[in-house]
């Protein structure tokens, strides 16, 4: 079985922009694969902000209303995105999503080393 690894957010250092939307990537559902489990990996260095992974079931989503949230990082009740976090964290999400993207909000410092999706 072939494994695909996609970049949702490349290395991004804080530069004064608080909100960024990553490039959409074809998800597992786009290829109609039988597996619906995907792994999202977050690598950060003193990152302050929130990263939301969004998915779509549409064949060609062009409007924000065609996307829905599937995971928010950090997803820890002790962290709210206002404290710097350095981590290499992976989590699984389940769904036959046709498209996946990541949004950064409240980006107030540090570096996102990468946000990747593997299926």
In short:
With 119 residues, the chain is an all-beta fold. It has no helices and 8 strands. It starts with a strand and ends with a strand.
Which key phrases capture this entry?
8-stranded antiparallel beta sheet, Jelly Rolls, 119 residues, single chain, mainly beta
For this structure, what is the CATH class?
A: Mainly Beta
Mean pLDDT, as a whole number? 91
Proportion of strand residues: over 45%
In the CATH hierarchy, the architecture is Sandwich
What is the count of structural domains?
1
Shape: globular
Structural class: mainly beta
CATH topology: Jelly Rolls
Give the C-alpha Rg. 14 Å
Give the tally of β-strands.
8
Cα end-to-end separation: 10 Å
Major sheet size, sense and barrel closure: 8 strands, antiparallel
